[in-house]
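Contributing new complexes? Match this layout with magnesium ion.
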Amino acid sequence: MRIGHGYDVHRFAPGRRLVLCGETVPYELGLLGHSDADVAVHALMDAILGAAALGDIGRLFPDSDPQYEGADSMLLLDKVVELVSEKGFSVSNADITIIAQKPKLAPYIGRMRDNVAKRLGISADRVNVKATTEEGLGFTGSLEGISAHAVVLLNE
Ligand code: MG
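Output block (do not edit by hand):
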């Protein structure tokens, strides 16, 4: 088994959709980024690549490349899963933590989990998505942005 960790941050911006684990969450602000800025899926992809020792998404999908402008991060996740499969790895489980002061994510967690499980090709009981706040502290607390961590186990 191989373990990997991923971490990402995106800044809030007006006039953008808020997309987390492939789910559009209604909110007055979205996340700024070259792609759809799905911070949770970005952390997840980096965890998968980390476990497989295949670098990171910045190297795989450079934001200088116009083909990734506005990209659906779930499609990028498909590519990451394909890449690690080719190397003989399969995802055993994933645990994602989204750190956001606002909005309340509880109503969307179930769908986020299902979206991720589907893309990873594993059952939903092998995927956990959770949300927390930082009690008003730091950049998430002051609503500057959202961060996410992910931990993944790969089978060789
Ligand atoms: Mg990112």
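Reviewers usually confirm one structural detail per submission. For this one: The first strand starts at residue 2 and ends at 13.
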